[in-house]
Design brief:
Length: 360
Amino acid sequence: MNVLWVMLVAGVLMLIEMVYMRIFALRRIQYERFFTKRELYCGQEVEMVEIIANHKLTPVPWLRMESRMSASLRFGAQENLDIMEDLYHRSVFFLRSHRRIRRRHRVTCTRRGYFNMDSVTMSAGDLLGLWSQSRQLALSAELVVYPRLMDPGELPIPSRKWQGDIVVRRWILPDPYLINGIREYRHGDTLRDVHWGATARTGALQVKTRDYTASPRLMLVINVQLTQNQWGELNPAQRDIVEGAFSIAATLARWATDNGVDAGLCCNGVLAGEEGREILIEPSHGEGHLALLMETMARVIIRRRKSLHSYIDETLIEPAVTGLDILVVSAYWSDLLEERAQALRRQGNAVVHVPVGGAS
């Protein structure tokens, strides 16, 4: 009889505990998550910090925090942490009354990208785990992973040649005393450059072209296509080839900033969160501008928005840009791209193909 009474009392207490936890388990629970750095380079390590606090008298037997994570973020081994198939991050806590816990996780960023952990699912339940309650919390934990920087020896030979040769010959402002030829008038040319003798001979307005000083302007053109006709998604091995293009461009952008060279960027990919936006950044200099270039490269999704030759037409040829060192970082080079390169050279630019993944 005593055993029955014990079992009855235990059952009643368990029922009371279940009802109480159903009402109060998630009340006055505060959760915060952030990274110790917002921006870093691929391959570097950062800490993700979780802070959870129970602001009520009643303890919480177990509380689980779950959120979706990119497989590109590798977590170090840690107690009470579970990464399910590289997709879900799960932390489990026991919270005493008026308890605050701070937990740190070491995270290695294995790929370029923009990561925003914007929500987490919080679950709690009774002592025996017979019942649980969940709710979703909105968070904002951003991480911007720049492309991996390469050692100078890893860069393709044409880009190393460019650093030591082409840049020395290029320019930013025309020298008014060095005239090197004549061409047809284009919109934006000044009247003082008109060559009246040539105009009279040809019957069409002609202007003088000039040599320039030795201060360069660099435009990095990144191609997210592996072949000229490629659409669709890439497999992991193909994506790694294109990722190499971003590493080369990031390394050259870093080099340009360190050497006082203006650098710009254009890419025929898609920008995360702004799918309709054209990716074009005019050349400039300084650490702030470098951060803009790096973050833009981090946010690019490897999916072509336009074919590269069409993109070059719209962003560089039709606006008649001139005075640029244009580096086309691409896994292929075709007759259509060579035609665009020749057109850009006629406009007064230098054009170099920087191969990726064994391209030539």
